[in-house]
Amino acid sequence: MSDLDTLVTCWLTLPDVADQLGTDVAHARQLVRDRQVLAVRRGENNALMVPADFVQEGRVLKGLPGTLTLLADGRYSDEEALRWLFTPDDTLPGSPVEALRANRGTEVRRRAQALAF
User: Fold this and answer.
1) Is this structure's pTM higher than 0.85?
2) For residues 16 and 6, what is the distance between their CA atoms, to the nearest angstrom?
């Protein structure tokens, strides 16, 4: 998972996610179970961690849940989806997650949908 360490520079624990969303940890866990956000186990204590870019202005990043569904439909694993979301793409420009943060979700979802075929 070392390439994820290079691609994703800031991670949040589930309590941090809950705090940023103004909710409790149980709701943050539910967001992971419902694939509204992705979490991977990291660190010495093997804690579930969410990329900080998945939370914006106290909410789950707009367009992220739909994009994650499209990537799952394309049989991407969670780690593969994270790699795709954070890998720079000169044609966007920037990474898909940067495009989502800039409210360019339609193009990101179009590309994610194309991956399924």
Assistant:
1) yes
2) 21
